[in-house]
Amino acid sequence: MGLAHTALNQGDELPKRAEGFAPATVSLDSLDAGTPARVLSVRGEGAVARRLMEMGVVPGAPVRVIKAAPLGDPLEVRVRNYHLALRRSEARTITVVVCDK
Question: What φ, ψ does residue 50 adopt, rounded to 5°?
Fold first, then answer.
C-alpha cells in the first residue's frame, strides 16, 4: 500500500523521505500547522475547484496551514501572501508536496 492510501491522523508525523525518493505528498487537510508545502494539484471539476484556482491555489503555489478553528473546521491557510479560510472538505481536494523547512 502506497503513501496515497495511508490515512494520517492528527498528530501523526509525515513520512520521512530518503535520498533519491519522491517527496512526501499529502492532502492539505492532513498537513500539520506551520509545515511549508507547495500545491501539486487541485482535484475536482466543480465551481469550488475553479474558484480555488482563481484565488491562486494553483500547482507550484506555496501554501501552509496556519491553524484550525476550535472544532477543527474551517482551516486558516496561507497561500502566496494572503490567508484563506477553507472547509476541510475543500482542503482535502488539494494535493501538496511537503517542502524542506
Answer: -65, -45
Angle made by CA atoms 94, 52, 81, in degrees to the nearest 5: 95
Predicted pLDDT of residue 74: 92
- Give me the pLDDT at residue 15, please: 52
Would you say residue 82 has pLDDT above 80? Answer: yes
Q: What does the radius of gyration of the chain's CA atoms come to, in whole angstroms?
A: 13
Domain ranges of the chain: 24-98
Entry pTM: 0.72
The number of angstroms, rounded, from the C-alpha of 76 to the middle of its chain's C-alpha atoms is: 11
What is 24-98's CATH topology? Answer: SH3 type barrels. (2.30.30)
